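User: Before I run my own analysis I want an independent prediction to cross-check against. Here's the chain; please return only the structure tokens and, at the end, one sentence I can use as a sanity check.
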Amino acid sequence: MVRDAEAFLGSFWAQERALVAGGLLPIPGTWWRDTINRFYRSGKSHFVVRKGRRVKASTAVAPRIAVAEMLYGEHRHIPGTPPIKYAFLSVLREEASARLSGITAILDILKVEYDEVGTTIALRNRPAEFVVITANYRASVGGTVAFAWCDEVSRWNDAK
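Assistant: Structure tokens:
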């Protein structure tokens, strides 16, 4: 299935307007807007951003894209299989877990019902979960992942 980029972007930017109206700060700067639009219009499946620190990528951009992928991303769930995962990966579980507060803030403004269980946010009305995963191939296997935010990849090391 090929995604309709314009439909997705229309929904994404409508979501952004709703979040700002609900009290969240907007995605910072035109660079993010241009980069997000360019990526989705490209038809590519991997979005790699090399960026500096403190540009709100993990706190503002990642949760918004994750929720938009869940709501508008056309990820098909196969009945009888576990929920589709929208994952945040980092070397430290605490770092990845910090993204979940952004997810709950967004879901609350959009009035999407969910349950929090540990480091998982499970949606009530669709088979989807936001999860935190430690970046370690020995511990991170299984499940269908529709979205993965891989944070600070330069620090990943499976030799430990």
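Sanity check: The chain has five helices and five strands.
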